[in-house]
């Protein structure tokens, strides 16, 4: 299993065909050259899918940077030389010193700068051989997304709606999920915002947006429900299979139908549309009393960054100010110290401990009067000052 940069380098070094291709390109002695994009990404995804045979590539993308010879005929000459050495491959050679004009961008500073402005982070990769034929990997947007098999736009392709539309068009054309089913595709920031508005995204914070779950979010939900550390203090603490996750998703959908203002919502980071968990106001019956619970789950990769507290505070304000509820609760198992601290920071106080579904549970509660009294106290303090 590929887990880091060294794993990627080792996997390519052991791929005889890839090394042959890199050696062929090296003989051209091109300035600032790389073999990039799908050549690297597809190798990684094939390995992560356990494929015994490589997925065919439409192109072998070779790039270089030469400001002194920007005629397209130069690129054609290099392609012909490569075809003479390895005629069975779909060579494509481009000088990045001129490609900014074709793409309508500002001039690139180097080949790596050009790679950073590829459409997808998982495609913004390149490899080459150094003077001693050691393998060099460049990943100006990082390797996390390609290893997690996430397709999302690079920061450059998030800058405006025109580039976002190009990215969305590529998603349709490439259809990566048909080749690599484990791949997770994320929309551009602009499209995600449009979808969010259609889904009724009514809660936002400085860093997060709350959106109703859709079928396309199922893989992320599975990742939450299958992580033993995430579900340790949820219900019976057991992970769920994909079938169990599907039942859970249907339960979420039912809650939307019963009351569109309630239910668990996908938590999406505003800056890059990455899902980081879910949260929402959920109906509960506690000792015969109808309650409204503030619930929040954060994926393990995003623990310790204040997202739970940010989401809980937003739900508190939404429930009391927009929905007019005078009382909100959170149900937290005693051992979940992190969630108990979040509840306290949000203004909820420990009210009692109960037995619920065979588990000891702390009931944290907040009354609207508590908020009003807190504000009154703050006003008194300011008056004294």
**How does the overall form come out from the CA principal axes?**
elongated
In whole angstroms, how far apart are the ends?
Answer: 61 Å
Structural class: alpha+beta
Strand order of the largest sheet: 3-2-1-4-5
CATH superfamily of the largest domain: Gcn5-related N-acetyltransferase (GNAT)
CATH topology of the largest domain: Aminopeptidase
Number of helices in the DSSP assignment? 15
CATH first level of the largest domain: Alpha Beta
Q: Give the integer mean of the pLDDT values.
A: 90
CATH architecture of the largest domain: 3-Layer(aba) Sandwich
> Compute the gyration radius: what is it?
26 Å
Domain count: the total is: 2
Strand content: 15-25%
The ordered string of helix (H) and strand (E) elements is HHEHEHEHHEEHEHHEHEHHEEEHEHEEH
Tell me the number of strands: 14
Q: Spans of 5+ residues with little confidence (pLDDT < 50)? A: 370-385
Summarize this structure briefly.
The protein folds into 2 domains: about 180 residues, no CATH class; about 190 residues, 3-Layer(aba) Sandwich (Aminopeptidase).
